[in-house]
Every structure is written in C-alpha cells, then in structure tokens.
Specification:
Number of helices: 12
Low-confidence stretches: none
Number of strands: 25
CATH superfamily of one domain: Substrate Binding Domain Of DNAk, Chain A, domain 1
Bound molecules: adenosine-5'-triphosphate, magnesium ion
Shape: elongated
Strand content: 25-35%
C-alpha cells in the first residue's frame, strides 16, 4: 500500500498445504541484489529436504501450541514411540489462512501478496544461469503454472496417494489401517521416506528404487494374514516388479515412475485445455513454479507436451513464491496496473424510471418512488486500471436525517450487471459512512481503486470531509 513506508527489512510467510516457509531480506541486500533472499537455515538443520517446513502443528494435551514443522513431526514421532501421544493433537496438511490479528502482525505492516505475481517478479529478476531456459525471462506474455501440493487431481499429493494405494493393493486396506493406527511414528517415517525418494525420481535412470520402510508394516501383515509379504506380492500385478524383504522395498524404476503418471497427465491435459482458450492461445512462454515443478518427470512432460513453448523454470521453483514475496514487500509499486477480474460496483436507489426498471423493484422513500438494488458500476471486468488511480462517483442520501450511509460493494463477472441481486453478483463487504447530524441530504464522494493486492473503497462525506476506507482482498 502506498502509505507503507520504505522498510529496513521485509519478511514473507508462505503457508502452503504441505510445506510452509519464511524468508527475509534487508534493504541494503535488496539494493545490491534483489534476488538475495535469506531463508531460515536453523529450520532445515535436521533432515535436509527443503528450505520449507512441513505444514504441521503439534499441540499439547491442554490444546496449547507446542511446535511446528519438522520439530512437530520429530516430537510427535518420539511421543508415539513411547506410546505417550494419545492426548496430544497433531495436525498436518491443512491450508492455513493468515489472520493478521491472530498472527500478531500489525495490519498496517502486513500485505497479502498474490502467489503467481510474486513468483513472476522473482523470476524476472533472476539471471539466466538461475533459470532453465535459454536467455533471460523477459517475455511480455506468459503463463504462470504454480504446481504445489493441493489442487485435487493436479497436486503433488496425488502422487503420495498413488503410493498409498500401491501399498494397500499389496497388504490390504485393513492391514494398512491397523499399521497406521498402531504405529503412528512408523506411518510418518513411511511418508517421509517416500517424500525423499519422490524428489529423487529421474526420467532416465533404470536402477531400482529402494525405500526403507518400518519393519512393523511387514510384521503387521504377517501377523494378520499368516503369510509373507513376498507371497502376497506374487498375487498382485506387482509380481516381479517389487521385492519387499523386511524393512526394504525395492521397486522397478518404471513402476516408481508410474506413480507420477496420472497426476502428470492430468496437469498436461488441463494446460492443453487452457492453452486452447481465446486470449490464452498466443501464450508461448510457460513459467513453472511451486515444489512439484522441481520434479524432473513433470518438467519433461511439460517440455514434450508443448514442444513449441519456451519453458522457464527457476532453480528453486518451490521457493519462487516466497522469495518473490520478499521482493514485492520492498517494492510493492512493481505492479503498476491490473486487469479487473470482475465488474465492481455499489448498490444505489435512483429515482424510479418505469421505462427502465421492473415494478417489483419500486420502493417509496420519503414520498418519492425509487428503484432499489441498482448496481452502480465503478470498474468493468477486463478493464485495465492503474493502481491507485481511482474511479470516482457521488452518492446522495435519500432520506433527510440519515445517520449513516451504507455502501455495499459488489463484484460480478458480467460486464453490465443491472441489479446487485442478480445471481452472479456477490457482496464483498461494506463501507459505513457516518453522517453529520443535519436535516439536509448529504453527499458522499466515493473513490474505488486497486491497491497492489486489494480493492480499496474510500468514501468522503462532503461537509465534514471525514473519510471512511475499506479494503477487499482479491484472494
Ligand atoms: N523435487 C521434487 N520432486 C518431486 N516433487 C516435489 C519436489 N519438491 C517438492 N515436491 C512436491 O511438491 C509439493 C509441494 O510443493 P509446494 O511446497 O509448492 O506446495 P505447497 O505450497 O505446500 O502447496 P499449495 O501451494 O498447493 O498449498 C509436494 O507434493 C512435494 O512432494
Ligand atoms: Mg504454495
């Protein structure tokens, strides 16, 4: 926002479904190299998987916060191993919503940034040696593909699900459930091990993949089913492709790669559909960010599915959003204009014109016929609007002695909504303008504009010049 002063340090927090992280940079570092962003290295001192931490929280039996990320996982595993975890609360893979009050961050210092935008900013500033494409990334038009964990059939966790399904096909759902319930620590170790191997998958390697899994998985199966896992595999389609002895599972490379297949083809199909759409068709540059963009199989699939496209992938694709958010914090004015995603307006009640309005919208106020629920358009969908460049309008009270004026702000995907009650219209919120105590009809000047990442509505009452402002997130 414009009133946010130049900062000495900017920190960004990225809450993802599976992984979360934070990063920061000082003004002087930013000035020498804007892409020089520090992540917290204490956070990844343990099992070095990534600079982000798993999105999980451990709470004490009384509900108080205990730990976050790898710490939470480690502590929960330790508790489970001693069978002391029963009363503790462990949450993982949830999409967090950052509430500034709860986070203890002063609202005037907090800016919500939009993920694809920050990722783009970061990539635009990277030198070509840190990008996997020929030359610098300075294309005018490109598509940002944020491949994270969530997104149903398109998320990286879809691969984890396929792995689970494979285990279930071998040992059966009841055995797997029993193992998960009785061996919480073991289950988490299994997921971690898969995550490590998942990140190492390569298109061209044919050596077998070995996973070290909890012995309890093997023991639980043999106890329940009275046969060895080796015998179980003989009866599945995995015969000859998996060797599972005690705590080692060895998989054919091809079989391991197959776990990614559905997810990857869903993503490429979806992109192919998008690239057929008008307005998107001419896009020839694809910018891949998000953790799953680091997956070599995924990268290859994009390159082969879209051979004519220029595919740009930053070196640490999973951190692009986070690093870009730090850059955005230093210079929010990087975004100079935006294309309105919706038509934005405010409800008004103009004099009733029987030629224009249906009878059921007629109301009588102070002896005059008025039309209720009319959508007064401020910004039209598709319009390019410079940030902080306001669209203005005047609103007049319809009754004398009004104590306040209620401006309800609406958004609609239609170009010319007539009434705010149309099914496509959604109320974003309202601005309450307090009015001075007089019998006169009062005028209120309204300004609607885009900030860096929010819609701002400013209302000023004319006589007292008192201002009322509201912000609406684009998220
Ligand atoms: N090198 C890699 N190879 C394969 N998969 C990877 C790699 N690195 C990360 N992933 C996968 O990417 C996903 C995490 O990506 P990211 O951190 O961008 O998601 P997120 O921010 O948690 O999720 P979202 O943005 O959807 O809320 C996980 O499914 C993880 O297993
Ligand atoms: Mg993310």
């Amino acid at each position: 926002m414009s009133n946010k002063k130049e900062k000495i340090v900017v920190a960004a927090i990225d809450f993802g479904t599976t992984y979360s992280g934070y990063a920061f940079s000082f003004k002087h570092d930013y000035e020498t190299d804007p892409t020089k962003v520090s992540a917290n290295h204490v956070w990844n001192s343990g099992s070095l998987l990534s600079l982000k931490q798993p999105t999980c929280v451990l709470c004490k039996p009384d509900g108080q916060f205990d730990s976050f990320g790898y710490d939470a996982e480690d502590r929960y595993i330790a508790l489970a191993e001693e069978n002391n975890h029963g009363k503790w609360y462990f949450f993982r893979r949830f999409k967090m919503v950052l509430h500034e009050k709860q986070a203890g961050i002063d609202g005037s210092l907090l800016t919500i940034a939009l993920e694809p935008e920050t990722a783009s900013m970061y990539c635009q500033l990277l030198s070509s040696d840190k990008l996997s494409s020929m030359g610098k990334f300075d294309d005018k038009k490109y598509m940002v593909i944020d491949l994270g964990a969530s997104g149903g059939a398109w998320g990286g966790t879809k691969v984890d699900e396929e792995f689970n399904q494979m285990i279930i096909k071998i040992i059966g759902a009841p055995t797997f459930k029993k193992f998960c319930d009785q061996h919480k620590a073991g289950h988490m170790e299994l997921l971690r091990e898969f995550e490590i191997k998942k990140r190492k998958v390569r298109t061209d390697k044919n050596e077998k993949i070995t996973l070290t899994v909890p012995l309890a998985l093997n023991d639980t199966y043999e106890k329940i089913c009275n046969e060895t896992i080796k015998d179980a595999i003989e009866q599945t389609p995995y015969k000859g492709k998996i060797v599972w002895i005690k705590d080692k599972i060895r998989l054919d490379a091809e079989l391991f790669r197959n776990l990614f297949q559905n997810c990857i083809s869903n993503i490429t199909k979806h992109l192919a559909d998008l690239l057929e759409k008008p307005g998107v068709k001419e896009t020839s540059t694809l910018l891949m960010v998000g953790g799953f963009s680091e997956c070599q199989l995924m990268q290859e699939a994009i390159r082969t599915s879209f051979p004519k496209a220029k595919v740009v992938i930053p070196k640490e694709a999973g951190l692009a959003v986070l690093n870009g958010a730090v850059i955005f914090g230093h210079t929010p004015q990087i975004i100079t204009s935006r294309i309105a995603k919706y038509t934005y307006g405010i409800n008004i009640s103009p004099p009733f014109d029987p030629a224009r309005y249906p009878q059921d919208k007629k109301v009588s106020v102070g002896g005059y016929d008025r039309c209720k629920d009319v959508f007064k358009k401020y910004i039209e969908v598709g319009e390019s609007v410079k940030t902080h460049e306001g669209r203005t309008g005047k609103h007049v009270t319809i009754k004398s002695n009004q104590k306040e004026m209620l401006l309800k702000v609406y958004a609609s995907p239609d170009k010319n909504p007539m009434f705010v009650t149309e099914p496509n219209c959604e109320m974003l919120g309202k601005v309450v303008v307090k009015l001075p105590d007089t019998a006169e009809n009062m005028r209120v000047d309204v300004k609607m504009m885009f900030g860096e990442t929010e819609l701002m509505v400013e209302a000023e009452e004319e006589t007292m010049k008192s201002k009322f402002v509201a912000y609406f997130d684009f998220l």
